[in-house]
Amino acid sequence: MRVSRSLYPNGQLLGSGVLKGCKGKNPCKVAWLPGLPELPLEKARTDGLYSIIKKSKAIQVVSVQAGGYLAAPALKATQNILQAHPDVNVIVSSGDQMIAGAYRAIKLAGIADGKSGRPARSSRERRADQEPLDRPADAEPDRTFRHEGEHRQVQA
After folding, report:
1. pLDDT of residue 111
2. Is residue 2 part of a domain?
3. Does residue 152 come out as left (phi exceeding 0), alpha (psi in the -120 to 50 range) or beta?
4. Distance (Å, rounded) from C-alpha 112 to C-alpha 100?
5. Stated pTM of the model
């Protein structure tokens, strides 16, 4: 089976977002929500992600959970992550539907007073309680959420 190399750079882009989300955090605890980690396309994306984040000694990947490319499985996976790692700083995923599920889990956990709804590479900011779960089709996808300890802030 042949996998396009375009997924490796996509993983690197996600890794760059994680670096931005972890800026100033040491340690920075990261959760990774790939669609189905056993698929070659996700392996390539994961390799790209790790090629970037391994450069930072502050980043600790504390959980890898399959998001199943859908909001519902990602919601459950994120609930499990937040239960096991309530101090997670960044949740990164390879798909918009999974980010929607992660976002819902974050809201259900009561983490609603921070910032979210923007890709880590963007300068746009919104309050978490103002971020719609259903985005317009032309909206830029979110990829990374950042959770700030006791302040319960979430930032993409």
Report:
1. 84
2. no
3. left
4. 14
5. 0.71
Residue 78 token pair: 């994120």
Q: What is the domain extent for residue 146?
A: 7-155
For residues 25-35, average pLDDT: 96
Closest CA to 92 of 39, 42, 137, 40: 42
Average of per-residue pLDDT values in the chain: 78
**Phi then psi dihedrals of residue 139, to 5 deg:** -75, 145
Which of 5, 3, 55, 53 is CA-nearest to residue 32?
53
Is 35 contained in some domain? Answer: yes
Residue 1 lies in a domain: no
DSSP state of 149: G
- How many domains does the chain fold into? 1
CATH number at residue 140: 3.40.50.2300
pLDDT tens digit sequence for 38-53:
999 999 999 999 999 9
Structural domain contains residue 21: yes
Most confident of 4-8, 51-55, 112-116, 121-125: 51-55
Model pLDDT, residue 22:
95
In degrees to the nearest 10, what's the CA dihedral of 128, 111, 115, 121?
-110
